[in-house]
Structures are given as structure tokens and as C-alpha cells.
Amino acid sequence: MKKRGKGMGCMWYPIGFTVMANPSAATVKVNEDGTATLITGTVETGQGSLTVLGQIAAEELGISTDDVHVVSADTDATPMDTGAIASRTTYVTGNAIQLAAEKAKNILFDVAAPMLGVRPDQLEAKDRRIQVKGFPQSCLPIGEVAAHAQNGAGTPALGSASYNPPTVAMDPETGQGKPFSTYVYATQIAEVEVDEETGEVEVLRIAAAHDCGTAINPMLVEGQIQGGISMGVGMAIQEEMLFDDEGRQINPNLTNYIMPTSLDMPDLEVDIVENFDPTGPFGAKGVGEPTAVATSAAICNAIYDAVGARIYNLPATAEKVLAAIKSKDHSDRQKYLPAG
Amino acid sequence: MTDDVKVADKTDSLTDLKETDEDLRLPSVVEPAHFPVETIDTEARHQTPAVGQRATRPDGRLHGLGQTKYIDDITFPNMLFAKMKRAGISSALIKSIDTSEAEAMPGVAAVLTGREIPVNSYGPSYQDQPVLADERVFHAGDPVAAVAAVTEQIAEEACERIKVEYEPLEPVYDPVEAMKDEIRVHPPHSNIYATKRIKKGDLEKGFAEADHIFEGVYSTQMIEHVPLEPHASIAQWDPNGRVTLWSSLGRITLGRADIARTLDMPINKIRIVGTIVGGNFGGKNEITTEPALALLSRKTGRPVKMVYTREEEFIASTTRHPFIMEYKTGVTKDGMITARKVRLVLDGGAYCSWSETTLGKACILSAGPYNIENLLAEAYCMYTNKTMAGAMRGFGAPQVCFAYESQMDEIAHKLGIDPLELRMKNAFHEGSASPTGQVLQSVVVKDSLEKAAERFGWKEDGQ
Hey, what CATH topology would domain A19-161 get? Predict the structure, then answer.
């Protein structure tokens, strides 16, 4: 008989390296027509980071995503970046980009101020215009200001900056300290169906609610969550590298190393938890790694809810689940003691 | 069809020849473009403010149309292809490497062994990994020689003709066995190459305050990242002694420093171009074949490409650490956690790679997103003669989350408290102190619990 169950997993996860410096630098150039070029040393590894980083530069300059072209990943030409690791790109590289774009923007303000008869600090960049705060009708197209900055004033609008998340070293004995600048939080809840006769588990659906601070691009955040869950499903019930007695892998191929395909994917219901982190670019934190963290716990807790079998050793293959169903007494692995 | 083809012979007139020529020409209709030339942008890309827009990715369009150029798609004139000979033995001394037969093969341009590498070691924390094993093999996937040839097939055949003489050593595969340090993977160093400890409050007092104590041992498996695009690089040594590397590396700045170290070269003589990466997930966070390819390019004066096979992706790239996790947790009858003791043993495989980071993050996160005043978490990372574990999406967090959330579930069921309710009672709030004593801000654990529960319909069928 097939039985259904539900289970949850809740988690926290830090952004950036543990204590160690992990800086990023960036350069933003505003072109004579008000479009911009962002130069970053990070690498696009498939997650859409270059799009998100372009959006951060665009936001600071008051222009659109499409107005920013992103140049990346050439050690001869792009500034240093710690790279696509530790869920740090949006937060750390993003902060560097916001600071760099702000410097370029300030050049535009200096040039526009006498043109509009105000002080630079009375200006803002919005909707492809440099405008007087509170008096949006008093404005100049950003392209006109950028062209004048370069060809009139002789001060082309560009800026470079770097950012490193602040941390405090951990005490070697007690580990007390501030190892990370910020953390994200998430909950995933799974519904599974377990075949009591075979032990086979089918993950039916997963609801995932993730915090990433401000979602710079909600579509890409959702994509990260969906992708992370697929890795979590593999970890929970399928994937395992196996070795023979002589330390050689016995399944180093996609025929015998089983991982989820689109057919194995449950229905996903993804929510972004509203949040704003004052230390991130426009309130953003990160989302890459945390998406794969809570899935296996949620699925195994759902298996327990369905058939009363607790899995202590991943992955929860059909063989293991069946064995756990057959011996509901698992006192060998799990002890429940009254406090002495 | 052959009857229709006109063949010119000596008796043909100039007109006949011209006609024949016209007939033999390639089709006059130009092949259509491989992709639609009109670009389609979503409105979101053009809107301000930019933040919060569901802006489409320009690279997404290239992926969808099959126009993205990965390293496997990139070719240079006179490019050679490299392959590596894998040890196939998990622990051994290398007595000799005979490359003469491989070098004599037609089509083979160069063979490289570890002794030709200026500084034959690398690694993000400890430089314990050889580019090509020269004295000792630490796991079966270790490369012992590299070949550059005019085709991949010839390079592969040449690898088979390289003769390596080994003196087998006693291996150790089990991390708990490795803790005894009776068989050392990297003698004279201990197998326990990294440790971490988080201590907070008074553990004994915390357990004394508990009405119930839960103990459990949880473990997780070794997992491969399985990116669609395997590790790939092209090296091109130029006549000025600079080397350019097109690489699937996800961290080019630090990769460049690592390559400069192994090649004993100034950093400004090395250029890395990070190509569009077909999936990383932590597996492409360190250099692999790049120094060997650079040296093969220098030896041959030609560009050299190497793309891992799927098998190499499994046996020679990093993996997710298997964990063994002991959890002991004290709770009151109301379900409030009073103390937690955690002990983690990580199987790091043959090299450190990103184990120190994984160990640290796992230890810090091991108590879960809960207010626990009395805590002790200890973590140890072990060398074993297996494929090395390294960075993988979550740096140890998925492993400890499986343990702490499984145990939360056990507590909830034993005490008859709804699992959602139990978590809500203990979860961090704004200003909570983390296990390291850090005051947390922008904390939304409870919001995420409520939102997921609402979306799932957790309360609807009555727990």
C-alpha cells in the first residue's frame, strides 16, 4: 500500500567566507548616451549572476537592466573578485558595484548641478534622468549629462570600488566571534508517497519559503530555489558515490549514479520571504547555496510521517526505507533516555 | 545520381567546362542563420527601477538557441588535445614512470610528468595535492602523467602505453578508522587535518535542566556535483612567455595566483579568461589541469585543450563530504531546547581542498536556527585514500541540517508537539545570539516557517 506523509526542514545559512577576507572590486562606466558598462571579475556559472549585478548597477544609476552591459571574467582586464562561491556574489560583488556606480553617479551630479542651478547633493538619478530631488520636472536626460561630463567638463563618469564583508575572528577555544556579516533563513515542506511493499519514495510536492533579503530579480531567485531543491531531492533519495574494496569508484557514470531528472521532480511552490538587510546592496543578501540545504531533512521527515520509519543514513533508497519499515524498532541507532 | 554528374574531359569545349563548373558549385542558396536575428527583449529589461524586475538573462537566450560557446566548442589553429593517465590504485609509492613508448607514438606531441612541474602542489587551504602525482599516489583518481596529441583518441592510447611501477601501501578508507592515525594518508601528518570547536554556556547545567534527552547518530553519503559541462581548459603559451588559459574555473583571481605558484611565474604573465560555465555548484572552485596544460603548451608551442570525461568528473574532481554526526539534545517537557552537544566527523578524502571551510561552516551551523544557550559543537576532518571532498553547494550545511532537523522531528513526535510548533518555539528572532555569540539581524526564520506552512497547507488536515 502507498502511504502519504509530510515533513519539514528549516535552516539558516551565512553569506560569504568564514572570517577570511573575500573582497570583490568593480568598475562602472557611464557611456555618452547614458548606457553603462559594468566590469567585474566574477564568472557567470549559470546562476544568472551577471544579470543581477547589472541590475544593481542600473538601480544606482537610475537606468534599466538593458542599459547596462556586463563585462566579466578576464584577469587581464577585469578587477579582482573572490568569485562565484559561498553565496557571496549578489551581496559582496553587488556591494562593490553599488559603491562603484555611486562614484560614477557623483561625477554626473557634479556636472549636472551647475546645468540645473542646484548643489550636487540636491540631485538624484531616476528613470534615465538626473533630476532635482522633490522637483522631478527640473531634470536632464542622463545621456546629456554623461556626454557633457566626458566631452565638455572632461570628467568622464566612471567609478571603481571594492567591498569586503566585515567579520570578527573566532576564539580558537570557544569559537565565539562574528564569522559572517549576515545570514539567510528558509523552510521547506515536503509531501511524499511511500510504497510500503517496495520502500520506494516518490516526492510529490515541496513548498519552499526562502529569505534572500531584497530579491533583486525574483525570477532568478525562484530559479535558484528550484535548482537547489533538485539537488536536495538527489541527496535525499538517490545520489551516492560508491567505492569497491580497493578504493575505486564503482559507479562513476550517469547510468549507475542515479540523480533526479525532470520526471523525478516534485511540484514546487516557491515563496520569497520579504526581508531587507541594511548591509546588502538595496537590502539583498544571497540565495545560491541555501536552496539545497533543507530538502533532504524535509523529505526524510515526510517518510517518517508516512510509514513511521526513521532514516538515519542518506540516501533514503528504497532498500533502506523498506528495511526501516520492516524493523520499526531502531533502538540500535536511536536512543531515548530520560534525564538522569 | 552519379549519372547526372558531368565530368570534363580533354575534348570538352570551354563552354562545356564552364557548365560543368556551374554544376559542381555548392548550392547557391545560402544556409539560413542558426538563430533568429531579431532579438526579443522582455519589457522587464527596459523598466526602471531595475531592482525587483523579473529581467530575462541575455545568456539565457544564447543557451536556448544553442549559441553559447563552452570550451568544448572553442578551437584554435593547430590545437592539441590532452589526456591524463589515472593511477587506478588508491595508495602507493611511484617507483618509476616509463613514457618512452607513448612519446614514440605518431601523433603524440608531448608527455608531461610531475617532476617537470616547478612547484608540484596546490590547494586552497593546504597545498597537499600534486598537479601530477610524482612520488606517491593518494587516491585512485590521481593523475600520474599527461599527454598532448593531435587527437583525443591518440592521447588516450598514449596514456595506456605509459608504464608506471607502483609499490602498494596500506590504504585507509573509513574516516572513523582514519581517526586512529594507524595508517597515515599523508605521513608524517596526522589524518585529522582540521578541527573546529564552538562552545557556549554550560552544557552540564543545560542537560540538567532538561526533562528529556535525545541522542542520535546520522550520516550522509559522498555526492558528485554533476555539472552538465565537465571541467575544461585550453592553454596557449605565447612567444613572449605569457600563458593564456580559457577555463571553466569559477574563481579566476585566486586560480591565477595558484597557477602562478605551481608554474613559479609572475602573476602578470598569466591570463585567465573565465568562459561561460555550464554549472559549478562548488566543484569548479579550484584549479585542476591548468598548470599541466600550460606546460604542455610550452613544450609543444601549440594550444592544448583538455575536457574531463564524465568518469573523470567523478573520480578526479571534488565531491560533497560524507558526514557522521552525533547529536545529543536536552529539551524541557514543553519542547524548549536547553542544551545540545554535536560531534561531526567529515570524510575529506585524499586532499584538504575546501574541507576547512566546510568543517567551519558545518560546525557553526550545526545547532540549527534555534536559540540554544548551552552548546558544544566539535568537528574533525579526516584524510582517507578516496576521491577528495571539497566545496559543494552548502559547505556542510545540508549534512548538518539533515541531522538537526531529523532530531527536531523526533523530539516533536515523542513529546506530542506539532513539528511546526516546536520549531516556532525555539527559532531565532531578531537580535538572537548565534552559537558564536553574534547578534543576528534581519532574521526571518519564523516568517519562513509560517509562509511555507501556509503555502503547503500544513495545518489543514490537522496534525
Answer: Aldehyde Oxidoreductase; domain 4 (3.30.365)
Q: What average pLDDT does the structure give for chain B?
A: 94
CATH of domain A2-14+180-326: 3.30.365.10
CATH code, residues B80-168: 3.90.1170.50
Mean pLDDT throughout B193-221?
A: 97
Q: What does the pLDDT average to over A304-324? A: 97
Asked whether the beta carbons of residue B449 and residue A187 sit closer than 8 angstroms, the reply is yes
- Cell numbers for A268, please give them: 514546487
Nearest to B142 by CA among B317, B383, B324, B265: B317
pLDDT at A13 over 80: yes
Compute the 3-state secondary structure of chain A and give helix, strand, coil in percent, each to the nearest 5.
30, 30, 40
CB B225 within 8 A of CB B282: yes
Whether the Cβ atoms of residue A56 and residue A128 lie closer than 8 Å to each other? no
Decide: A240 and B314 in contact? Cβ < 8 Å. Answer: no
Which chain A residues contact residue B58 at CB under 8 A?
A: 51
* Separation in Å, CA of A58 to nearest CA in chain B: 6
Cα–Cα distance between A221 and A271 in angstroms, integer?
10
Give the pLDDT of residue B23.
Answer: 66
Q: What per-residue confidence (pLDDT) applies to B25?
A: 67
Q: Tell me which residue in B256, B278, B453 faces A75 most closely, judged by beta carbons.
A: B256
As to burial, measured by CB atoms within 10 angstroms (0-12 exposed, 13-18 middle, 19+ buried), residue A328 is exposed
Characterize the bridge pairing of strands B136-137 and B212-219.
unpaired
Local structure of residue B3 (DSSP, 8 states): G
φ, ψ (nearest 5 deg) of residue B246:
-90, 125
Q: How confident is the model at residue B32 (pLDDT cuts 50, 70, 90)?
A: confident
Same-fold call for B175-220+319-456 versus B232-316: yes
Res B364 pLDDT > 90: yes
Would you kindly state where each structural domain of chain A is located, as residue ranges? 2-14+180-326, 19-161
Mean pLDDT over residues A290-300, rounded? 98
Q: How many angstroms separate the CA of residue B268 from the nearest CA in chain A?
A: 8
- The whole-angstrom separation of Cα A266 and Cα B334 is 34
Ramachandran angles phi, psi of A227, nearest 5°: -65, -40
Q: Are B137 and B315 in contact (CB under 8 A)?
A: no
Mean pLDDT confidence for B154-183: 97
Instruction: Classify B91 as helix, strand or coil.
Output: coil
What does the domain layout of chain B look like in residue ranges? Answer: 80-168, 175-220+319-456, 232-316
Looking at domain B232-316, its CATH architecture is 2-Layer Sandwich (3.30)
Distance in angstroms (rounded) separating the CA atoms of residues A125 and A168: 36
Q: What's the rounded Cα separation, in Å, for the pair A122 and A139?
A: 12
A2-14+180-326 and A19-161 agree in CATH topology: yes
Assign a CATH topology to domain B175-220+319-456.
Aldehyde Oxidoreductase; domain 4 (3.30.365)
Q: What is the ipTM of this complex?
A: 0.96
Instruction: State yes or no: pLDDT of A337 exceeds 50.
Output: no
Provide the 10 A C-beta neighbour count for residue B179.
15
Q: Which of residues 136-175 of A touch B (CB under 8 A)?
A: 170, 172-175
